[in-house]
Amino acid sequence: MNNHSILRVVSKFMIPFILLFALYVQFHGDFGPGGGFQAGVIFAAAFILYGLIYGIENARKVLPATATRLLLAAGVLLYVGTGLFGIFMGGNFLDYNVLAATAVGGQHLGILLVEFGVGTTVAATMVTIFFVFAGQDF
Amino acid sequence: MLSSLSPHLPIIQVVLPLIAAPICVIFRRTGVAWLIALVVSWLSFGISIVLLEQVISNGPISYLLGSWPTPWGIEYRVDILSAFVMLIVTSIGAIVMIFAPNSVHMEIPPDRTYLFYTMYLLTFTGLLGITITGDAFNLFVFLEISSLSSYVLISLGAERNALTAALRYLILGTVGATFYIIGVGLMYQMTGTLNITDLAERLPEVASTKTILVAIGFITVGIGLKLGLFPLHVWLPNAYAYAPSVVTVFLAATATKVAVYMMLRVYFSIFGTKMFSALPIDELLLILGLIAILSMSAVAIYQSNAKRLLAYSSVAQVGYMVIGISMVTTTGLTATILHLFNHAMIKCALFLVLAAVFYRIKSVKIEDMAGLGKAMPYTMAAFIVAGFSLLGVPLTVGFISKWYLILGALEKGWWPVAGLIVVSSLLAVIYFWKIIEIAYFKPRPEGAAEISEVPLNMLLPIWVMVGSNVYFGMNTDLTVSAAMSAAKSLIGGAP
Q1: If B424 and its partner were Cys, which of B207, B267, B293, B394 is the partner (CB 3.0–4.6 Å)?
Q2: Alpha carbon distance B298, B32 (integer Å)
């Protein structure tokens, strides 16, 4: 891809906006369309684009396997942790009402945390799948 | 602290292995992963016992996720059947985890063993989730969790064939799960609900519509693929034969049992017994069950690989369970539910022995097992006792379930069916004898390496399983009373 200067320049320009859009989809998910899954895929798309244009080796420098693995697990743990915190606060598992002072505030906080967990795991999974397939020697 | 957790036990049962799995990924150490899996399995086993006691004394437990009322929210519902199946799954898990380390470390490359424990924990989560959930869609989600992780478990096998076997299971398993969810979609279309209790209330109004009949068809085929119902069993023999030994033990003893549980749940808790007058599923199941017990036992005779032989025997055993369902009587269902428990004990013991044999001689081909009766006396003695249980010799659990099955057949006046069940047991004698003959009456080949008995942490789980085969064969109070009250509540209609 070294001689495709248009692709290199345009993708370098695009990647920050893709990441920003992913964060928008992530954190605006409880007011508009969006959520953790979609955001995670978009976030991962930025890394996959980088990997396609600049090579897997460079992409792995940005996001090494240990980091993706950690994020993969951290997302699930954040989701389950939020659920368990509901029990800790005296409600049922995944009961958001008890998370904050008001029920509405609790629902906001709960869904935000859970969706952030989903987003983290989905992004890490997408990147991992791409790296594993692209890194294989056929 | 503990008493305040007790109302949350249904969710903790599922969440505990679910948290443990990513923690194993973070540590990536074999020893740590094994310790986590062991502790979680035993904790789950303890929780199952507590839940079963609670259900027997206080009736079904309902747990609302996120405190959303049913039918809008997801409900976890533990009744006597789910508590009983949960006890089966967790007890097998607890036993297998004691046995696992030696066998796993020999068969799976060291950089992947942590993956084995992670995937085991996820399969465990999925299987427990299936038994505990009271929501038809949530059941699909757990089915996929358990299936996807079990594909990975099978693909960890040392031979390249393991990959093909896993892929085949993946394709057929996905078709099965898809068919199930299409059926659930059709039911949702007609009733607007996914909660199992709510579905049972709303379905009778629309029960005779074509949509619901099609839904029953899709669900039957979907679950049939999962439980290895003849002729949808083609994925099973290879998957069991090429998976790592410990994986075979765990899946053979739990996965098909949980699929049978799904079938019971959908037929009797959702559709109810009236379904069988609208669509002759019971006759279909009876015919397929009979073909399974006869043809699969016959096919098993001709196998040269002991693991494959037992895999075909498993398909035959699923046939017995399906015949019990096809009777649509309390005795028939009691036989099915009893056989869930009993077959899990039997196959767990037998496959554990094969895992021990593979640990010592690196092969489970029947011809390579020559002389093992002398070389590994305790292991092979366990094989004989567990084999007797498979045949249905009195004083073992296998006898109890066959007794109830034949009783159920006679109750319905199905003399030929009772006869065929006996014939199939005789076929089992032949394939079982094949292994015994070679292991006991042929000497070890000249120049074969000296082999010794397996270490105590492998021998102990085997004999605990064999012991429970005999114990529950003589003391049937717990199993029969639990199975019978579960069968009564299923036939009664209310979940």
Answers
A1: B293
A2: 44
Enumerate residues 6+ apart whose C-beta is below 8 A from A137: none
Terminal alpha carbon distance of chain A: 19
- ipTM, interface predicted TM-score of the complex: 0.90
User: Does residue B23 belong to the interface with chain A, where contact is any CB pair within 8 Å?
Assistant: yes
Structure tokens at B290: 């009979």
Neighbours of B138 (CB within 10 A): 20
Between A69, A84, A87, which is nearest B25 by CB? A69
Whether residue B23 and residue A73 make contact (CB cut-off 8 A), yes or no, is yes
Q: What percent of chain B has pLDDT over 90?
A: 61
Which residues does B279 contact at the CB level (< 8 Å), separation at least 6? B213, B216, B217
Look at residue B296 and give its three-state secondary structure.
helix
**Interatomic CA distance for residues B466 and B460, integer angstroms:** 10
What is the rounded end-to-end Cα distance, in angstroms, of chain B? 31
Cα angle B269-B271-B272, degrees, rounded to a multiple of 5: 65
d(C-alpha B249, C-alpha B232), whole Å? 21
B98: three-class secondary structure by DSSP: helix
> Beta-carbon neighbour count of residue A6 at 10 Å?
7
